[in-house]
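[SOLVED] Need 3D model of a two-part complex

Original post:
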Amino acid sequence: MSAKLLKDKAVRLILTAAGSTSIFIVLFIFLFLGKETFQFALHPGLGRLLAERWTPVSFQAQVFGILPLITGSLLVTVLATLFALPFGVLGAIYISEVARQTEKEILKPFIELLAGIPSVVLGFFGLVVLAPLVKETFHLETGLTALTGAMLLALMAVPTIISISEDALRSVPVSYKEVSLAMGASRLQTICRITVPAALPGIISAVMLGMGRVIGETMAVMMVTGNSPIITANPMQSVRTMTATIAAEMGEVPFGSDHYRALFCVGFVLLLATFILNVVAQRVLKKYRLS
Amino acid sequence: MDKVRGLILAAVTASLVILVAVSGCSRPEKGQGGGQTIMIKGSDTMVHLVSTWAEDFMKQSQTIQVSVTGGGSGTGIAALINGTADICAASREMKPEEIDQAHQRSVNPKEIVVARDGIAVVVNPANPVTTLTLEQLDKIYTGQYDNWKQVGGQDAPIVVLSRESSSGTYVFFQEHVLKKKDYTPNARLMPATSAIIQSVAADAQSIGYVGLGYAVDAGDKVHMISVKADDSAPAVIPSESTVKSGEYSISRPLYLYTNGEPQGHIKQFIDYCLGAEGQKIVRETGYISIE
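Solution:
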């Protein structure tokens, strides 16, 4: 009896250790980023991050204003979410409620495939196909805009939104729908009034997880947004995102310099943003599962 | 049954954790198999040139292994300072702060010019502007001119394309063409040379700068601008001969850095690069030899 208990305890211990590894890893990443951010706060001071320009490589004066980067990321993320939301949610509703079995079997793997396309490939597609298209359609000087980036990112967020929303829709108890149909409601009415509202928390968290993916995506955005660090709310302008800044500049920056630490500050802000998004999404998801 | 499964799962996770931990600690031995190894890290501009050198060099001397990685001049310099690379390839000179850092770690960087690179200014073939002075380029890139009309072209906005601030070419252009002034924040910062070529080929109003080799490779897709040193100077098209003779004003040396005077197998490699065969490869890969 006690031997069995011991074995149980050992197994539990190992599993706990394995499970908590990721917690420690996240903690260490926070500490690691925090260390450099702290040093930036000590020397040039965090106030330097509030400037309105980002010109880290300059013979005049280095300016590390992360506001253009934050607004850039925000603009692209919000736009991408706006694009992805209808496609994602409608797609999920179609797959879970309307599609026949064979359709489901074709659609699902293809959507998963979309999630698996490397972002460089999508970025290249954006640069060569999408950017000229955007340029032609809106008569712009160039197709390298926030809009182009947002369209690509929407493409990446759609699979996430679809698969999680679909899970949420599928786990709505069948009895809800049966009652609704028995009351004489049509299928459309049932979907709009019963199934979707019941699955709404799940759909919201799906969208938030999709946003998390969008805000952290780098390569495709870097290739098509034009990377100009300007503060703008115009989707036809070039913007520079936080991720693209880190990816583009980290490779070349002198180790331990102010610029190096400024990039860590950007990373810290980015990590914080995705962390908050994920926590909120998890909260919503949890609440939904309990109810 | 469940217990067995749990045990197996636990064992697998535990062994995975151990595996990761162990593989993280062990480092590959330097100079495996009795031969000698040279690690080269640095400039992305030069990575094609250096790896072609390495391949050719390894064919000749069977015992010496040369491994080449890119990542940017700054990465290479950091690696040289940290002792993780034997040679650093750089498309810019080391900055004073980097040299200080090296000295602190008792690394004594030795600079060797191994090739030259002309920087071609390119526009869309449809653009009627074919000649610009250095001053006009300066004004375009700092944002004082924003319409092609101002430099004798059509009435259309100028789309300014630049490399990322991590690029050695960016800094070189900033120092020698912009006379150390800042780029306009509206400049679109492209992550790679090929992205500049691609955008210039697609957008009639854009202007960009790229390594001469890339401009030549692009052929008819882009048009190389003839550059005048000042109003009265002759317009010069970039080419191997005009860069060599010094007539074309936007050209720069490419460097290899070693720790101290090169010795042994590192000296063998450097001598090869500077020799007839090495310089032949310089020409073949689109750069300009130093002979």
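Edit: The first strand of chain B starts at residue 36 and ends at 42.
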